[in-house]
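Section 3.1: Structural characterization of target chains.
Under the original work plan, the team committed to producing a structural model for every single-chain target entering the pipeline before any wet-lab resources were allocated. The record below documents one such target. The sequence was received from the expression subgroup and is listed exactly as submitted; it comprises 248 residues.
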Amino acid sequence: MSGHSKWATIKHKKGAVDKARGKLFAKLARQIEVSAKSGGDVDTNPTLRTAVQKAKAARMTNDAIDRAVKRGTGDDDGGTYESIMYEGYAPGGVALMIDVLTDNRNRTGAEIRNIFSKLGGSMAEPGAVGWQFHRRGVIITAEGGDEDTIMMAAIEAGADDVIAEGDAFRVMTEPSVVYDVKASIDETGIEVISADSAMVADNLVLVTDTSDAKAILRILEALEDNDDVQDVFSNFDMTDELMEVASS
């Protein structure tokens, strides 16, 4: 199982997603607000449509979504945000891409740099990491779903591939249809842990050292806890056993 899949599963098991739901909603609202600056109609603004679909997939309320759209279109007061993709390395040569929306570039840059410095990573120059990744739709299901059911629902909705990872599944799609495929899987009653348009690495770095594994997960947690960080993408892989040890 890829590091992306394992990390999503581990957080789900620990209940971290539910505990951080308020922070997640704040980040989703910011994404909607920024997307809506190009127009508040989801039918003519595909970026906004994707942001709204992502928010609904996370069970954000329609009222909260509407307020975020109004802030973005200028119908309500809101800040001015810019999108930045930071790049860096964690121990073991693991590459990281950090997707940020911020109203203060200097503050956020200093915070990201401090996380890397304190936890054993390092910032990278723009482009040093990004060439290793490309954007894909990624859906992770909970363990125990029926493979034939998931396969039929996903492929019929436009998925490219369904990959068994232990007792769970990773569904790969074009970014534009990821939430349509998720909706199709939802209709089967199979639980979806996460669904997103993600930066996926072309090649994975296998992590075998326990100290490196723990350091990588500490950096991921610290970055994801930052209010300005929307997503963190990485190219690590490790065994289920090592992931459990490193996350405990």
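The chain has three domains: 3-73, 82-132+203-247, 134-201.
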